Amino acid sequence: MQLLNTLYVTTPESYVHLDNETLRVEVEKETRLRVPLHHLSAVVCFGHVSVSLPLMHKLADSGISLVLLDTHGRFKARLEGPVSGNVLLRQAQHRLAGDASFALNVARNCVAGKLRNCRQVLLRGARETKAPEDAAILTRGAADLAAALRALPAAGDADTLRGVEGEAARQYFAALNALIRPSAREHFRMDGRSRRPPRDRINALLSFVYSLLMNDCRSAVEACGLDPQIGFLHVVRPGRAALALDLMEEFRAFADRLVLSLINRGQIGAGDFVEREGGAVLLEGDARKTVLVAYQERKQESLSHPLLSEALPFGLLPHVQGRLLARTLRGDAAEYLPFLVR
């Protein structure tokens, strides 16, 4: 399995078109970038970017997805070629999604993976901080998540499970402020998770990085031949990639760590955001490029996979987990096991 690149086009008024077997990006008729198509797995365009029709056809034929996001990273549309994958696998997915016991078990393991990985973020922070009061907050938050993990087996239906996950998420985000370096807390502080729209700078960063992770998880489940719309934890509704959201849960902690790193290293500052009418806080211009570069670099970092006993780039982990889920749906594995950070 090869980790190919995702090309992010962020410059307003860019024109992206086909040049033989190469993708060319022009701004004001000046060539800014050429990329051989065989190096790409996806092209993601932000805001006012034009894409030529011949390139769209070529991307579809080559199995390279084209994703359109608005200026601030919210999903707008996705173009892909013919649906691939084993129809029998998708039939099994649809059938088992209606099996309450099977669906609950997969959903419970998705939540367990998320809570366990988020707990590791808090424990690591508690070990590394030099401030006793921060260590106490982080240790208490980790204990809350441990309690949530112990409560998961008793969750007898999907709604109860979502309730346990929601309360644990609230406790987790309440502790995240203690992971921000003290000198940055004046400008970077969150009062819980806010999404549509994000109400503070940390939430704006989280939403942006989550949108990148979501796109990668959707690509992964589709590459495995699964239907991204039919999930086990997230409620199925029109236009929602429920299975991609399920898969994303166990990786949210990695996105959180990236956001914290960007803030604590000073790569993203208070001036990189704009506040809109109504209180929405959004990431601005060049700061998006900083985040994208950091995200791509993070995808290249190797992590040890506990089931495979080998190191893999983070960017491949959603694909590996998608394949493990497919094995479970086919009956080749007893249950789906999420990726757990060591």
TrEMBL record:
Residues annotated as transmembrane: none
KW Nuclease (keyword) present: yes
Domain of life: Bacteria
Keywords: Antiviral defense, DNA-binding, Endonuclease, Hydrolase, Magnesium, Manganese, Metal-binding, Nuclease
Residues binding Mn(2+): 165, 234, 249
Enzyme Commission (EC) number: 3.1.-.-
Gene3D superfamilies given in the database record: CRISPR-associated endonuclease Cas1, C-terminal domain, CRISPR-associated endonuclease Cas1, N-terminal domain
GO molecular function, one term: endonuclease activity
Function: CRISPR (clustered regularly interspaced short palindromic repeat), is an adaptive immune system that provides protection against mobile genetic elements (viruses, transposable elements and conjugative plasmids). CRISPR clusters contain spacers, sequences complementary to antecedent mobile elements, and target invading nucleic acids. CRISPR clusters are transcribed and processed into CRISPR RNA (crRNA). Acts as a dsDNA endonuclease. Involved in the integration of spacer DNA into the CRISPR cassette.
Family from the record: Belongs to the CRISPR-associated endonuclease Cas1 family.
The protein's name: CRISPR-associated endonuclease Cas1
Record organism: Rhodocyclus gracilis
